[in-house]
Amino acid sequence: IRWTKTAGSVSDRFQDSSVFNETLHIAKIQRHQGGRYYCKAENGLGSPAIKSIRVDVYCEFISDVSSKCPAEKSRF
C-alpha cells in the first residue's frame, strides 16, 4: 500500500507522517497539508486498486493581541 499526495509521495513531503496497513496518519497536521490524497494497493495480480480522499484542514485563529482603544485625550 502506498499513499501519495497530488504532487509527490506523502513520506517524502511530510516528516511527521506514517502508514500502518491502510491508514495514513499525519501528526500535527497543518493547513498546507490539506488536499487530495491517493491510496494505491497492488499485489502483482491484476490491476492496482486506487482510491482517493480529500483532506480539509480547518484552523482556529488565535490572537494574543488585546483590542484596547487608546485613551481619549481632552483638549482645552
UniProtKB/TrEMBL annotation:
InterPro entries named in the record: Ig-like_dom (IPR007110), Ig-like_dom_sf (IPR036179), Ig-like_fold (IPR013783)
Residues in Ig-like domain copies: 1-56
Superkingdom of origin organism: Eukaryota
Full protein name: MAM domain-containing glycosylphosphatidylinositol anchor protein 2
Source species: Anabarilius grahami
